[in-house]
Amino acid sequence: MATWSAPGKVFLFGEHAVVYGKPGIAMAIKPRVSVTVRKVRNPSKINSPYIENCFELTGVTGSVYIHSQLPSSSGLGSSAAVTVATLSAINDEFNLSLEKKDIADIAYQVEKKVQRGRASPTDTFVSTYGGLILIKDNKRRILPPENFNIVIGNTLVSHKTSELVEMVGEFRRTNPLVVDPILNAIEAVTIRSMHNFNNLKVLGRYMDVNHSLLEALGVGHPALTRLVNAARSGGAYGAKMTGAGGGGCMIALCPKRSKSRVAAAIEAADGKAIITTIDTEGARREDDDEREDYIKAGR
Ligand code: MEV
């Protein structure tokens, strides 16, 4: 029996623009998904297509228990975290000798297969390695970690990343003169943000600008606007939607002392708040006690 966990992610800057080769910054976050895999002769039916494909691609069979702190379908990379944790646990339980790079690559193949072609290599990379990640020209690089205090607000409005990416693509095809300057402005904000990681007020201001630019791309939602405004009134340095938009989650960059106040403001605006910060570990092995707990809980 082997239990591994993997973190979720948020985009700090640059979502949607990264699809067009612009830079983006993503960060692994503390909430995780844990997966226990056990070699058994007759495994019971698995009802997650992600997990099913992890077994199929590695050519082994086993039973699985999942425990997740991440809300699904909210843009926090929960399917990538499930996939990375499952592959890591399979690797351990069956001694497959896969390296981290292999786990990230296979996890991306699984996501692409289940999501019929449209998947983000960023989600699986961030979940595998953890930390702060710069995405540029479809390559990913680990940046030195930063201890940002982040409050996530989940609108609980479901969204489909593939549809939102397609919608922005269509807008760009039909209106390049309008959309290209917006993507260039997102690029500028992302680049400037990297020069201001130690100036949280400026960084917050850039988040506000990035949010408006995403709204200009057409991926805003009234519930996101409500939570972003609530977080700003609650004392955040700045706030923006994170991920594909159209629902899902927003993030607020906060002074340490204001985290609870910002979270309360988000909840008062009908959002579900998660206070978090960077995860620097990525996929990690969990200890035996915890594994036993999962099994006892029948998960
Ligand atoms: C979704 O989390 C982020 C997008 O930029 C898509 C992607 O990067 O694959 C909208």
UniProtKB/TrEMBL annotation:
Entry keywords, A to Z: ATP-binding, Cytoplasm, Isoprene biosynthesis, Kinase, Lipid biosynthesis, Lipid metabolism, Magnesium, Nucleotide-binding, Transferase
Top-level taxon of the source organism: Archaea
Gene Ontology CC annotation, any one: cytosol
Gene3D superfamilies: 3.30.230.10, GHMP kinase, C-terminal domain
GO process terms (BP): isopentenyl diphosphate biosynthetic process, mevalonate pathway
Cross-referenced InterPro entries: GHMP_kinase_C_dom, GHMP_kinase_C_sf, GHMP_kinase_N_dom, GHMP_knse_ATP-bd_CS, HddA/FKP, Mev_gal_kin, Mevalonate_kinase_arc, Ribosomal_Su5_D2-typ_SF
EC class: transferase
Compartments where found: Cytoplasm
One Pfam match: GHMP_kinases_C
Reaction catalysed by this enzyme: (R)-mevalonate + ATP = (R)-5-phosphomevalonate + ADP + H(+)
Binding site for ATP: 71-81
Entry function: Catalyzes the phosphorylation of (R)-mevalonate (MVA) to (R)-mevalonate 5-phosphate (MVAP). Functions in the mevalonate (MVA) pathway leading to isopentenyl diphosphate (IPP), a key precursor for the biosynthesis of isoprenoid compounds such as archaeal membrane lipids.
Complex and partners: Homodimer.
Record's protein name: Mevalonate kinase
Species of origin: Methanolacinia petrolearia (strain DSM 11571 / OCM 486 / SEBR 4847)
Upper lineage: Archaea, Methanobacteriati, Methanobacteriota, Stenosarchaea group, Methanomicrobia
